[in-house]
Amino acid sequence: MKLRKGIAVTTTEYGGVLLDEKSGSYWQLNDTSVIVVETLAAGRAPDAAVDRIVAEFDVERAEAESDVAELTRRLVEAKILRP
Predict the structure, then answer these.
(1) Whole-structure pTM over 0.90, yes or no?
(2) Gap between the Cα atoms of 16 and 5, Å rounded
């Protein structure tokens, strides 16, 4: 997976912001969403994001897998991520 050209990600003290520079639309990201976006943008698989979330937060692996899959699906639908 890859971020589409023209998508910028900035971290903040509250998580992060994903900006579509072409349309001006943006997504506000929480800490775990930032992990997912950064991991996928680096060319790594969604499982790598799940591993990191499970290691850093008090969450069950199944819940992390479900959340990562849902966010990934939504970002692909929004044409922010390319499969």
Answers:
(1) no
(2) 18
**The pLDDT of residue 58 is above 90:** yes
CA 16 and chain centroid, separation: 10
Q: Which of the four pLDDT bands, split at 50, 70 and 90, describes residue 2?
A: confident
- The amino acid at residue 56 is E
Amino acid (1-letter code) at residue 17: V
**CA dist 42 → 20, 25, 48, 62 (Å):** 18, 22, 11, 23
Tokens of 44: 């790594």
What is the H or E stretch that residue 19 is in?
strand 15-20
The H or E element spanning position 51 is helix 46-56
Q: What is the pLDDT of residue 53?
A: 97
Nearest-angstrom CA–CA distance, 47 and 24: 30
Judged on CB neighbours under 10 Å (0-12, 13-18, 19+), 12 is exposed
